[in-house]
């Protein structure tokens, strides 16, 4: 990257002096965003292909949602759930109709939503399925990412994230993703649930074989096991359908959503579930001071209403080939694989031309904000409001970077 300006260096140094190093951000200081674009402290603009890990699906500074947030803040910002606040019922109806689920429980973050789903599954296992107390097992997938709380890290296989945080919560087993036979072999009488991402995001946008989700649904129904879909990244229009599970026309028992549920303006998450499963929650069994607050509810309702039009899902599907096919042309000439759905794509960099961080640095120099997920994998997540010209720009810049590195390799 180019040498940092004094203003950027001052911000980074101050953050390093007083902050904590649980992140290793790129040396880029942003101050403004609009639509699919962000601007750094020195006035340079970047096409945002990170979208705050799919939280800003509707772009930056979206006036439609900002007005909703400001309007609600001026009326009533927080009550806790000890009383009713106008608007929650409207949201609950909107998101259950959008998803096809029966009920919703609101939290704040994706990790909280997944923790809530785990609690629901375990209690359902004991109270409904009849699993002996403290014997419930939940099956998760190798390469998963569901958050970084202690319990969630108990079923992660990311050793860097696990190191030094044990002892971990028991009751989890990992199987290979996209392997229905391995899942079938792991299910036993004490299995309460299977939790998976319909597409693994942190793994590098790993898309399972067509029919895999449907096979998981059929197997879990047959064995009286809950299916939990973590749609924190894949949900809310990201992949061309409102929720990814809808692409295979299935209905899980529990679904978790977050990130873009509030258009990225405030932390909002939710667990969607069937009547039978959500009935395990009774007063005092779960809660959150900020979960379901009036501002979160107003924003989430507005997002649901926008997605209910189907406009963005259709545009996402129509523009997918512009992004996907444009990048597929580079396979064998610097890229080894391209995969994805909608405006969410993972690409693998041929080691012959360098690492994923090398390519990321080149693209940032050319005005594309992007991030790698693995040493050789890059995740592309344009806002779902990105237009054809912006997508074509990304493809051109990626092509220029990859072709230049491929040519340099041959010299």
Automatic annotation (TrEMBL):
Q: Which cofactor is recorded for it? A: pyridoxal 5'-phosphate
Cite the InterPro entries for this sequence: Aminotrans_3 (IPR005814), Aminotrans_3_PPA_site (IPR049704), Class-III_PLP-dep_AT (IPR050103), Orn_aminotrans (IPR010164), PyrdxlP-dep_Trfase (IPR015424), PyrdxlP-dep_Trfase_major (IPR015421), PyrdxlP-dep_Trfase_small (IPR015422)
Annotated pathway: Amino-acid biosynthesis; L-proline biosynthesis; L-glutamate 5-semialdehyde from L-ornithine: step 1/1
The GO molecular function terms of this record are: identical protein binding; ornithine aminotransferase activity; pyridoxal phosphate binding
Known EC number(s)? 2.6.1.13
Its family remark reads: Belongs to the class-III pyridoxal-phosphate-dependent aminotransferase family.
Any idea what this protein is called?
Answer: ornithine aminotransferase
Q: Which gene name does the record give?
A: rocD
